[in-house]
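Recap from last week: sequence in, structure out.
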Amino acid sequence: MNTLTLEKLDMQVDSLPARVGNTPLLPLRRVTLGLPPSVNIYAKAEWFNPGGSIKDRAALNIIQTAIANGDLTPKKRLLDSTSGNTGIAYATFGAAMGIPVTLALPENASKERIAILRSLGVDLILTEASEGPEGSMKVVREMLAKSPDKYFYANQYGNPANWLAHYQSTGPEIFNQTGGTITHFIAVMGTSGTMMGTGRYLREQNPQIELIAGQPTKPLHGLEGMKHMQSALHPDIYDAQLHDRVVEIETDEAYTMVRRLAREEGLFVGLSAGAAAVAALHVAEELDEGVVVTIFPDAGYKYLSNEELWR
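Predicted structure tokens:
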């Protein structure tokens, strides 16, 4: 792969067929039947980003910040661990910008994610499924320690450019799209960047907006990309004091909701979107009035091999 000069990198990003951010805010109409008319749920459709997920926002900001700081040079490879979507975002921009990418991810990631990453030219390292994302992170840090001059470690779990991407884009978009009427914001958490950045921005605009984190009910779950924070290694960017409360989501509930969103709303979304919709409904059912906004991180195409999900 030819490495481009840094002067050309911004031009390459501009040449992508779609720009990152400014995604639609969609109302949920049928899965919300039974709620009071004065309670509305909206979801940000993040699969409209060029790499197909909300992780494009963080990945692009991480790359652009590293270039500006001189941390990512034409002589270095981008290195990180991923559960899939951030890796696809790195790979998408890496291919467009001439940046070689090396990623580690658990071997039980969906077949679609692995195929996409390989198609985009990533140097891919599959790690033990039983060790989860922490195992991938360990492998990456070992590689960095052995060859520090070879890699730029993007470190999505600890890089403030992750949450700043949402402070600068996701938060302002939601506030503007709702005309400032949002009362509750809900995000499921993996790296926690979406909640940390969006939540901080929204709180600055209106301290009365309730920030609610969604997470699986237990450590061992089937919700790819999500963390059970009480049992997991906390990302360095995570601040447990930011959100007001946590809503727990059963795996079966999220699976059922993915099917409902497809068949009742015409929204073909992934597992974390199903989990987010479940959490949003739980919150909305407590209200007499309100504007509840959540994030649908990606579409369902990367989950087609999960036969249990689509039965």
